Amino acid sequence: MIDDILIGPIILPETMNSPRFLNFLETNFLDALLELPLAYRARMTLQLDGAPAHFALLVRNHLNAHYSSWIGRGGTIAWPPRSPDLTSLDFFLWGTLKRRVYVNVPNTRKELAEKIIQAANELREDKAMIQRSTQHVALRATACLQREGGHFEQFL
Fold first, then answer.
1. pLDDT digits (tens, 9 = 90+) for 36-68
2. Number of H helices, E strands in the chain
3. This protein's superkingdom (predicted)?
């Protein structure tokens, strides 16, 4: 998500490991980025969590070769463990999609993928909601700083 734009979803066919994640970065992710205007891409920073597939040497080598900076374990910008949820993906998108997808529990992987795509497409139409969530990042960052990096959500 950036401003009022929801990117994806990209449904991956298998359980993630480092070779598959590298392939994702080189194909699906790159294709999604290239759909964005250059002005957006120029101010983006890739952020990864500490998942083992993200930390593998082959992935970090690729990231270091193709991105001047990236946030993550072993990245050019450290991502501290147990960090508070500051991104709109963490505090907004995943929960919103989950609530919409599981109104009626999907029975198959195919049905799950279809429901995720449908929920994302519906959400994509509400640009104001997406923009509010991305703008909320600054408020959350300020609250996090005021609490010296500690828990802050109860004070929002």
1. 999 988 888 898 888 899 989 999 999 999 998
2. 9, 2
3. Eukaryota
